[in-house]
Specification:
The protein has one helix and six strands; from the N terminus they run ββββββα. The protein is mainly beta and 111 residues long.
Length: 111
Amino acid sequence: MHLPRTQPRFAHRLTVRLRGMLPVYTHDVSEGGFCADMLQPLKPGTAVEGSIAVGEEELPFQGEIVWTQRAAGERVRGRYGVRFTNVTQDFRLRLEAYRKMQGKRLVRWFT
């Protein structure tokens, strides 16, 4: 049984650039993290550093991969979740302003 999320997730397609990797796009974003697809997702527990494009700005973040879901094997596209571990107050304010500007496109609580 899945537990409800502590923070609502919003269906925003934002560009994420992780250090040393090709850009990926988010499925959903919350104040605490995001979900995205990539080829060969990193293992849970891996620390990541990068930036997320919010409007015209690139906002830096540090995070941790908390879960992965592979489609079929090690070399196939998969989905992964990142929890922000270090973001600035400016990051949070700009993300909130972007979310308000885009409107509420909530994602199911049990995803």
